[in-house]
Amino acid sequence: MTDPIRELTAQLASDPQSLVFLELGEALRNRGQPAAAYKVARMGVNRYPELAASHDLLARVLADQGDRHAAAEAWRRVLELSPGHIGANKGLAFLAFRAGDPEGALPFLESALGAAPGDEGLAIAVQRVRTALDGAAARAATAAATAIAPLAPSALRGAEGFEPFEDARGVVLLDTQGLRLAGTLDAPDGSDVSDAVAAHLQGVSREASRAARLLDLGAWENVTAESPDGHLLVLPPTQSTVLLLLRDARVPVGRLGLIAEQAARAARRWLERLA
Amino acid sequence: MRNLGEALERVTRVAGIRGAMLVSESDGLVVAEALAEGLDGAAVAALAASLTLRLRRTATSAGLAVPHVVQLRAERGTVLSVPAGDDLLLVAVAERDANLGLARLELRQAAAQLGS
């Protein structure tokens, strides 16, 4: 077995017309190589300007890089080519929320939900936005924005069951596509790493699920990584969400498991309250 | 290779451990294994290496150092992985009720033994 990126790169080199660039671009995103991912995505768009997936890949890369305007443009192009594209609708909704525009996000959310009616995170976000807009109350609008937009950790700490997390370094709740529903993660140097972590986290969830299934271990419950300067724990509070906790390394891993259970319950309650 | 056998045995002696193996981290291939019947060594190696790599990326993207233990906990068991020197991982598969505290300790000491 070789490095998958090397393998995909070789495949692309031997067959430049193939669609393997889509997989390669995603693999580079997941590996945290945005510049390389951008090159691959841009090349894909140039080669396949009428292919929605190539613009979708480019939009994701641009969103990773924080270029919201260009990402929105790319996702709009996806919708021109493939009306109802779920990823593009969710991406545009996410960008609207990030810009503090829940009203602008609603049509995209509704369109995405129409295409994926079983998506719990989407259903919650749509319901909350509708309530907020109907009431036209500032308080409700703020709460609605938190249904999908990044949420300050203090908002989570205020929820029932999150009180033990007052000293948490961070918590983030994501949908299955690696887009944030709530929470913010700060690196030890204080920088916001939420989106970078989210991009990798989506892959972790998939890997954990696959590993547990193939090793006949049943459903996965959590994954922990212990580093000298911090511990992180990933778990799925619901089928369509993934939650990550980041704690100081002084927190024993056994306690981290208990905190994680509380976090999962609190996240589920939080999602239910938004519904 | 005596050290290798001793290191694996040290881990598998822990009650509830179904097997231990040394895995090449970059390609997910088995270097050495001591597994109970029914465990697919190649699958364990590939999946553990892949998951460890992803967790490493997640941790580093969060500004953390490279993890010294990665653990997947599932309904019917746990997979543990620790770095064991250059491009190597020491991996163990534990039953649900295994003494994970002791297993982690033995894994880390065995990995240190291999890495020295």
**CATH classification, class level of the largest domain in chain A:** Mainly Alpha
Residue-averaged pLDDT of chain B, rounded? 89
Largest sheet of chain A: 5 strands, antiparallel
Q: Given the helix and strand composition of chain B, which structural class is it?
A: alpha+beta
Supply the CATH architecture of chain B.
2-Layer Sandwich
Supply the CATH superfamily name of the largest domain in chain A. Tetratricopeptide repeat domain
The span between the termini of chain A is: 45 Å
Shape of chain A: globular
**Separate helix tally of chain A:** 12
Description of the structure:
The complex is a heterodimer of chains A (275) and B (116). Chain A is of the alpha+beta class and 275 residues long. Helix content of chain A is 59%, strand content 13%. In chain A, β3 and β4 form a beta hairpin. Chain B is of the alpha+beta class and 116 residues long. Chain B is built from 3 helices and 5 strands. Chain B has helices spanning 2-12, 41-61, 100-115; strands at 17-24, 30-35, 69-74, 77-83, 88-95. A 5-stranded antiparallel beta sheet of chain B has the order 2-1-5-4-3, sandwiched between helices. In chain B, β3 (69-74) and β4 (77-83) form a beta hairpin. The radius of gyration of chain B is 13 Å and the shape is globular. The model of chain B has no long low-confidence stretch (mean pLDDT 89). Classes of the chains: A alpha+beta (275), B alpha+beta (116). Chain A binds chain B through residues 1-3, 30-32, 185, 187-189, 191, 193, 196-197, 199-201, 203-204, 207-208, 210-212, 214-230, 232, 234, 244, 246, 253-254, 257, and chain B through 26-29, 39-40, 43-44, 46-48, 50-51, 54-79, 93, 101. β3 (220-227) of chain A pairs antiparallel with β3 (69-74) of chain B, so a sheet runs across the interface.
